[in-house]
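BUG: 3D viewer hangs when loading the predicted structure for this chain

Environment: internal workstation, default settings.
Expected: structure renders.
Actual: progress bar stalls at 90%.

Input used:
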Amino acid sequence: MLKVPRLAFGDERERDIPDVAKIDRQRILKAADRYLQQPPVTITAFSSPRSAGGQHDYFSEGDYWWRDPQNPSGPYIRRDGMSNPDNFVAHRHALIRLSIQVPALTAAWLLTHDRRYARHAVNHLRAWFLNPATLMHANLQYAQAIHGVTAGRGTGIIDTIHLVEVVRSIPVLEKSRALSAPET
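Structure tokens produced before the viewer hung:
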């Protein structure tokens, strides 16, 4: 039977399945050490003049939508399968960065119990979701926008797939005691 490797945050009952974090310990710790040197960067560090939202609103544009060569100031048109390199992607990249750093820092804490890793992972969470100056509003109203067509679409939910591992990190970080009582 083929067994899928479990992650550091996986089900503890699956003892016979390899733990990726332990197998890949040195790579995880090297990445986490690098991330310790990098401050949290949230969506408030980037803005787009095409966003209908504010500084704290996540914004992205539909990948396959382009300026219409026949009507350059009009609504964008769809070019299926062709990603527009001029679309705003800074918020998406910041979210991906968060989704890489927090799980790596969490895995490093899980492997070493060095509180620096857990504290820094929690600093990212606070910056993104709690600090009034840097937080992201908890909605995707302006995600997957199409210039001249719509300020945002429900399909913007796809942009948050990266948050899965961030969310999975939180119960582990609770065990580290890096979160304050009101945060748990």
